[in-house]
Amino acid sequence: MLYTKDGFPEVNEIVLCEVTKIYGNSTFVQLLEYEKEGVLTISEIAPGRIRNLRDHVVENKVIVCKVLRVDPRLNRIDVSLRRVPIIVMKDKQESIKKEEYSERIYLDVVKELNPGKDSMSDKELEKAKDTLFENTYEPIFEEYETVYDALYDVMIDNSKLDMFTKIDQKTKDAFLKIINERIKPDEVLFKETFSLKCTDSEGVNIIKDAIGNSLKPLNYEKISVIYTAAGEFTITITHDDMKSAQRLFDKFRDNLVVIAKEKKMILKITE
User: Fold this and answer.
1) CA atoms of 166 and 164, how far apart (whole Å)
2) Do residues 245 and 188 make contact, with C-beta atoms less than 8 angstroms apart?
3) Which CATH number fits domain 188-270: 3.60.20.10, 3.30.70.1130, 3.40.50.1110, 1.10.390.10?
4) 3-state class of 153 per DSSP?
């Protein structure tokens, strides 16, 4: 991991744990993001009766848990494995992978800054990477939940790199180069339904033209409108982020509202 958090986790927080010891009906885990020990009782490992504890947990296995109770006075953290939904577990695992990828990006920046990187030992590279992180983490965690979120935002808007005020321009240039090379936009799928009806004898063509004329000003390729049934349509927009997709839909909707009013069509949009 690139960083660890101070203090104790919050109740209900989803945390990454490594099984360190199994003793009787209790499993002891290390909360990797906090460097603190947690306790996983047998009743919180899986639903139903457990015949063999080691069918579910073994030493050194990394698992995703939910924090049940925190007692800083006793330095005790109780966690649960069975209360973590599969989708939440997958989201956490994906988040960890992205943070590990962020760490590699920092390492690549260090290598970019050092032409003689082949002569640097692994220890020297690691130290330089940690120093770079120390000079950038404060603005990241003032605004973002994770390092990857910050780096992704910089990729979307390169000017966001200015938040790193403790690094020089040469380092910023290296950061920008590596971020733009290593991080690619995620695509999201935006869907919305609407109905458009026209009583004119040429209604089919009027509707077709109205939709086409509403799409044309957007000048965007990854957008489609499909007829489903009885005057119902689905618009699909593939974009780098949901906000941008929403803005495109808003423009399409505004265009269609104007045309529908002009042509005396009945327009209903489900939002």
Assistant:
1) 6
2) yes
3) 3.30.70.1130
4) helix
For residue 271, the model assigns a pLDDT of 59
Diameter of the chain by CA atoms? 79
Helix, strand, coil shares of the chain as percentages rounded to 5? Answer: 45, 25, 30
Instruction: Annotate 3-57 with DSSP letters as a single string.
Output: ----S-PPTT-EEEEEEEEEETTEEEEEETTTTEEEEEEGGGTSSS--S-GGGT-
Neighbours of 122 (CB within 10 A): 7
The per-residue pLDDT for 117 is 57
> Given the structure tokens 């199994």, which residue do they identify?
22
Give, to the nearest 10 degrees, the angle between helix 169-182 and helix 86-113.
130
Can you give the pLDDT at residue 6?
Answer: 87
All residue ranges of the chain with pLDDT < 50 are none
Query: Which amino acid, residue 28?
Result: F
Instruction: Copy the structure tokens of residue 82.
Output: 């069975």
> In this structure, which CATH number among 3.40.80.10, 2.40.50.140, 1.10.10.10, 3.40.640.10 belongs to the domain 14-84?
2.40.50.140
**Beta bridge partner(s), residue 234:** 193, 226
CATH code, residues 87-182? 1.10.150
Q: How far is CA 98 from CA 27, 49, 103, 105, 150, in A?
A: 28, 35, 9, 10, 11
Q: Which pLDDT does position 232 carry in this prediction?
A: 92
CB atoms < 10 A from the CB of 56, how many? 17
Tokens of 115: 């032409």
Structural tokens at position 201? 């004898």
pTM for this predicted structure = 0.63
Tokens of residue 160, six digits: 């966001």
